[in-house]
UniProtKB/TrEMBL annotation:
SUPFAM superfamilies: Radical SAM enzymes. It comes from Pseudidiomarina andamanensis. Residues 103-315 form the Radical SAM core domain. It holds the Pfam family Radical_SAM. The gene is epmB. It catalyses: L-lysine = D-beta-lysine. This is L-lysine 2,3-aminomutase. NCBIfam families: EFP_modif_epmB, KamA family radical SAM protein. Its cofactor is pyridoxal 5'-phosphate; [4Fe-4S] cluster. The lineage of its organism: Bacteria, Pseudomonadati, Pseudomonadota, Gammaproteobacteria, Alteromonadales.
Length: 332
């Protein structure tokens, strides 16, 4: 056998990723959406490209322009609206000293491990983020290690993005190994939407590597709607749970997607079926182009109250927002 055969074997998830949809017309045809609707919306791809896995597209209801999963990914002409208070960098992240390393909260340091993602969510607060400046290579890993060593208050590293699971297992193993060598660290957290849009990314190899780590591992997935919590995802997460990985979820409140108590309650129930505890429910970050997803604080609090009345406490996520410069997320 020649060595070329080895090179050609790409993991399943990378093959699926290569088949992603980036053309609104293609997504429209796949879902049999009205052509006029697709045509009028697709100009918004100039603001932020369309990107979606075929798996995630297959969860949408054909012919339904109000499908809650479609609304999260399809460019929309409403994104051209400029609304007071909605800005390019709502969390004032784009001025850090160390490229790709955000140390805003005392004990936790967040790393932009990979700029890209398998899905471009229209409400993404990093939709205008200059990711090209945030390559995380050997130099950045060294900087991260030095930052941690210089501050004994840091005991947890959060891998974020983009999406950190866009990195391949080899890259992740390098980062994990470097972090394990730092005795002050207790936990490694991975914040990723890939499990939801590409469940095949939850590989057995990665789970096993995390299980043998000295660091406690937490995977925070990002599902917004119960339709995202499929049997496929449940199966993949159940396997990861067997590797001693704590599973949490965070969601964003989105008008037209999940701004109803029924939907949010169903989401919590579906998550727990998948061994996931609902962690945060975020009020939308005011990023330019996403104002049509906003709901009022008053409505958000009302929804939270309705959830409390219906669910056990551990299935009610904390309703928070992020305010630039604060020492933690802020309860609403
Ligand atoms: C949200 C966030 C964290 C993690 O906050 P937790 O409340 O611990 O989940 C850490 N760093 C940054 C920059 C964040 O935005």
């Amino acid at each position: 056998m020649s060595s070329l055969n080895i090179i050609s074997v790409r993991p399943q998830w990378q093959q699926e990723l290569a088949q992603s949809i980036s053309d609104p017309t293609e997504l429209g045809a796949f879902l049999r959406l009205p052509e006029s609707w697709t045509a009028q919306n697709q100009t918004a791809r100039e603001l932020f490209p369309l990107r979606i896995t075929r798996y995630f597209a297959s969860l949408m209801k054909p012919g339904d322009i109000h499908d809650p999963l479609l609304l999260q990914v399809m460019p929309n002409q409403a994104e051209f609206e400029q609304k007071e208070g909605f800005v390019a960098d709502p969390l004032e992240e784009q001025s850090g000293d160390h490229a790709g390393i955000l140390h805003k909260y005392k004990s936790r340091v967040l790393v932009i491990l990979r700029g890209g993602c398998a899905i471009n969510c229209r409400y993404c607060f990093r939709r205008h983020f200059p990711y090209q400046d945030h390559h995380f290579g050997r130099t950045q890993l060294q900087q991260l290690v030095e930052l941690i060593q210089s501050d004994e208050a840091i005991n947890e590293v959060i891998l974020s993005g983009g999406d950190p699971l866009m990195a391949n297992d080899d890259q992740l193993f390098k980062v994990i190994t470097a972090l394990e060598a730092l005795p002050q660290l207790k936990r490694l957290r991975i914040h990723s939407r890939l499990p939801v849009v590409l469940p095949s990314r939850l590989t057995e190899e990665l789970a096993r590597r995390l299980q043998v780590s000295r660091l406690q591992t937490i995977l925070v997935i990002h599902a917004n709607h119960p339709h995202e919590v499929t049997n496929t995802l449940k199966g993949a997460l159940a396997r990861w749970a067997q590797h001693d990985i704590t599973l949490l979820n965070q969601s964003v409140l989105l008008a037209g997607v999940n701004d109803s108590a029924d939907t949010l309650a169903d989401l919590s129930e579906a998550l727990f079926d998948a061994k996931v505890i609902p962690y945060y429910l975020h009020q939308l970050d005011k990023v330019a182009g996403a104002s049509h997803f906003a709901i009022s604080d008053e409505r958000a609090r009302e929804l939270e109250q309705q959830l409390r009345a219906r669910l056990p406490g551990f299935l009610v996520p904390k309703l928070v927002r992020e305010i630039a410069g604060e020492a933690s997320k802020t309860p609403l």
